[in-house]
Each structure stands twice: as C-alpha cells, then as structure tokens.
Design brief:
The protein has helices at about 35-45, 45-60, 65; strands at about 5, 10-15, 20-25, 30, 75-80, 90-95, 105-110, 115-125. The chain has about 130 residues and is an alpha+beta fold. The longest helix is centred in the middle third of the chain and has 15 residues, at about 45-60.
Length: about 130
C-alpha cells in the first residue's frame, strides 16, 4: 500500500489509511525515512496488528465497565510513529476510542521487530 505523506506543522508529517490518520516525525526537512518505512509495513498488515493491539487491551480492560457494552469494538483513530531513544527498534502507538466511553482515548504502544510487532504498554487518557 502506497502512503502519501503531507507536511503538517514544523516537524510533523501525516498520511491516511481510510479514516485513520498516521503521524510521523521529520528528518532533515523530510518525513523520517525510518518511520515512513515502518508506516508502510504497518499499513500492509494493518488488520493483524490492529487485532493484536485490541486483544492486548482486552487483557486489561473490561469494556462493559468502560462503555456499557462487552462487545463494543475498539475504534482505531490514529497511529503515531516514534523513535524511542535507548529502547531498541522502532515503535508506534495505536490510539483507540470506544463508543460510549465519552472522552476516553486508549493507547497501545507497539514495538516493531524484524519478524513481528508486539504490544508492550497501554494507557487511557481522558480528553
């Protein structure tokens, strides 16, 4: 899947996959080539990595308590790409919402390895 990157602000680049916005950093006045490569890999396997991230949330989150429905789907809104200093490997964050969880933003951090992408942290913010 070819992604089109557009500058958004002084140091941010964006791309879209349907309704999902991808945020990438800048490198020497251009989109980060490392992050753009990772974004392309994530886009190519989006259903699988999205499912892995939402399954990770389900290990910790009771959706009935969070939004009132146990089978309410996790809605992927954004993907933010990062270069975690000292952590080895590129990382990205899925930002999910749940219908009925007003103002809640759920984030799952994913680490990309040569042969797999694994979730390693989650958080919830209230907006």
């Amino acid at each position: 899947m070819a992604l089109n990157f557009t500058r958004m602000g002084p140091a941010t680049w964006v791309a879209r996959i349907d309704h999902i916005t991808l945020y990438l950093g800048e490198e020497n006045g251009e989109v980060s080539h490392v992050q753009a490569g990772l974004a392309t890999k994530v886009a190519a396997s989006l259903p699988a990595v999205r499912d892995a991230a939402s399954a990770y949330l389900d290990l910790f989150v009771d959706r009935t308590k969070a939004c009132g429905l146990a089978d309410e789907p996790w809605w992927l809104d954004e993907i933010e790409f990062r270069d975690p200093a000292g952590e080895g490997g590129a990382a990205y964050v899925f930002h999910f919402t749940l219908d009925g969880d007003d103002g809640g933003l759920w984030a799952v951090e994913m680490r990309a390895f040569e042969d797999e992408h694994r979730p390693f942290r989650f958080e919830r913010r209230q907006g």
